[in-house]
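INFO batch 0412 | record 1 of 1 | parsing
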Amino acid sequence: MTPSSTALLTIDLQNDFLHPDGAYGRAGQGADSILALPDRIAPLKQALTHAGGTYISAQFTLVPGRDDAPLIAAHLKKLRPFLTKGDFAPGKFGHALVDTLAPADFTIEKVAYSAFYQTRLEYILRAMKIDTLIIGGIVTNGGVASTVRDAHLRDIHTILLSDGCAAFNEDVHDATLKSLGSVTEIMTCAGATEMIGNAT
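INFO prediction complete | emitting tokens
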């Protein structure tokens, strides 16, 4: 791998998902495996950016509509009825990348699972001449899996961080990693960090 043409892409590592005062924290939704991700990914981010690579944060976004009520897909409203005004809204505390990983070189606002769907991610990858994505974040079976598969369809080489992503259920996480093995390279955060060191 060449660091200058590689980007770390994290999915949904935001205050509304991880911080106790965020939307999910206030609702008592969370998992220890998810909370551990920023500290595990931070050394990899530092190594890659120090070597000339790029860090991109894709952040789930609920677009404020009339009277600031968020535009929420029907299936998400059913799954997460606690989401309300201000949650995942651009410019708000909850929408922001967690402090441990901030700042990102680029921030992608995404409105669905995949970081490619109706975002400027592909434009940034082309403009920065990036051909490899190292991917982590939440949840493994949702935004992470959708993004990995969309990258595969675009002939973008991906490295999925086995311990740099997580789900609310460990069995679901493990099953998703197994299913994605045919479309992506998989390695640990430490392994990816060592690979970057060997490339510089």
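INFO post-check: The first helix runs from residue 15 to 18.
INFO record closed
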